[in-house]
Fold this protein.
Amino acid sequence: MNKPSIYGLTLDQLTAWLQEHGHTKFRANQVWEWLYRKRVTSFAEMADVNKECTQLLADHFVIETLEEHLKQESSDGTIKFLFRLQDGNLIETVLMSHKFGLSVCVTTQVGCNIGCSFCASGLLAKSRDLSSGEIVGQIMKVQRHLDQTKQGERVSHIVVMGIGEPFDNYDNMANFIRTVKDHKGLAIGPRHITVSTSGLAEKIYEFADSDLQVNLAISLHAPNNELRTRIMKINRAIPIEKLMKAIDYYLEKTNRRITLEYILLKDVNDRREHAVELAELIGDRRDLANVNLIPYNPVDEHSQYQRSEQESVRAFYDTLKKQGISCSVRMEHGADIDAACGQLRSKQIRAAT
Ligand code: SF4
């Protein structure tokens, strides 16, 4: 049987595990530093940790479980990595370069069961959740790539927006966040981490009550139930009213701003009247909400959807602004590679089958 990755343990869990096996908290801190500051790939490299401890760790864990299968680089600096997991499954991770730093978009599941009608990943049903070690492993792979190619540069932001519904893999997603935030390790600031959900209301309450304290984005994509159900079948089970109630709880509990993601699909949800309806839906929440407009990246799998005209994007944006809604248009990354989420993975899987 494959050994699990040690990246799956938070610092508290690693400390408890080592203490149970006769080692000290000090030792756990040393190991943590070797993992996340010096970023070694084998326990034997942990020079100041005694042999007994490194052997114990090597008997129970591995460090890396991801193998690079493919890498696509865009002229704008975006890099798409396709990683192979120990069981042979492929997952996608994206590194993006911005003025404010380097962000990584991570995957949380192999496939996805939410089935958004515009998404290349939604066609490949979920086969399993990723462990937190596999999610942390994506950041470590990308960080090591930076260590080798751009010394001194570090992953500064994380978006949990890759393939999968993070709230459908809640505990592993939460441990992943605890690990990457830890100030003795990667120390990625909580304000630089965003988790995106398709709107699993129950988990929004749990997230609001948790110690995680990172940003939340909601994939809204439509201003009314009829349209949202057409685009995202999850809306049948969790309609907009239920979602907005959970959002209200989150806003009141955390007082943090929330992002509402809105993918613009030509002649489907991109008309001026949709923008007006969206502004009405946001209503009093406008002080704590930002709408992120995302021009659609067409994929072969969903030929029924096209990209909105630029004038429609502009008109939608202007209409929201006029209604006092804060909004932005997402910059496109990696337009010259397989830019849409899950596109590279689904192409590879199709080619292999
Ligand atoms: S958009 Fe996200 S939640 Fe929806 S099917 Fe794709 S991966 Fe799943």
Q: What stands out?
A: The chain has two domains: 6-60, 67-352. The first strand starts at residue 67 and ends at 73. The longest helix spans residues 132-149.
